[in-house]
Amino acid sequence: MYILIVILVIAGSGSGSAQVSRDEQAVRKVLNRELKGALTGNPEQVLSCYADDYVGYMAWTDSLSVSQLLTVGNRIIADPEDWTIFISSPQELKEYSARFRGGPERMAKYKKKYPGAAHSNEIRSVTLKGDHAIAVSKHWTTIPNPAKQQKLRWEMRTVWMIDKINGQWKISRAISGVVRAQ
Questions:
Q1: Which of 160, 130, 138, 140 is closest to 30 using CA atoms?
Q2: Nearest C-alpha neighbor of 123 from the set 99, 159, 96
Q3: 8 A C-beta contact, residue 174 and residue 86
Q4: What values do phi and psi take at 131, rounded to 5?
Q5: Which residues pair with 155 in a beta bridge?
Q6: C-beta neighbour count of 85 within 10 angstroms
Q7: Angle separating helix axes 22-40 and 103-113, nearest 10 degrees
Q8: CB 156 within 8 Å of CB 15
Q9: How far apart are the C-alpha atoms of 92 and 112, rounded to whole Å?
Q10: Which residue, 97, 64, 86, is CA-closest to 180?
């Protein structure tokens, strides 16, 4: 009988922790809507996920030299001293969102050029405190390399700051390219 009670207590205590709060579900919904809008070429959907005063940071730029990179195994981390701001106004956010309009066509051409190429996104974590959340997403692309009979994989992480504004969760800040790996 004692063992049965212990099992029931453990089972009952674990069931509550596995549930995702409504706020976490709402944060994940906003991020999934943004990511889906980007993949399906819907700039209006992308734009609807952001706060009016959104600021976007980039941890990776093409101008970084190899000496400015920190490496850990196959992970490449851009030195935070070299990060930059790439969106700092509503107009820049509109321009950024508009770039996704031709995304599906570009991806179709890419897949035609590299049969078997694939791209995906995954929300890795969400942490909430009051009306604020921080989340990490992983984005990756795989490309077959028939010459070497292998697939090349490129991935990166984005850190998102999401705030509840007038009752709605909106992306207020993000740092893209925090970690890249090949």
A1: 160
A2: 159
A3: no
A4: -95, 25
A5: 140, 181
A6: 10
A7: 70
A8: no
A9: 31
A10: 64
- What CA–CA distance (Å, rounded) separates 158 from 122? 10
Position 75 scores a pLDDT of 60
Would you list the DSSP string of the chain?
-HHHHHHHHHHHHHHHHTSPPHHHHHHHHHHHHHHHHHHHT-HHHHHTTEEEEEEEEES--TT--GGGEEEETTEEEE-GGG-EEEE-SHHHHHHHHHGGGGHHHHHHHHHHHSTT-EEEEEEEEEEEETTEEEEEEEEEEEEEEGGGTEEEEEEEEEEEEEEEETTEEEEEEEEEEEEEE-
Closest CA to 177 of 147, 129, 143, 136: 136
- Let me know how long the chain is: 182
Q: How far apart are CA 128 and CA 169, in angstroms?
A: 12
Tens digits of pLDDT across the chain (182 residues): 444 343 333 334 344 444 679 999 999 999 999 999 988 999 999 999 999 999 999 886 554 444 444 555 556 666 677 778 989 999 999 999 999 998 889 888 888 888 888 888 999 999 999 999 999 999 888 888 777 777 777 788 899 999 999 999 999 999 988 776 65
The predicted pLDDT at position 61 comes to 55
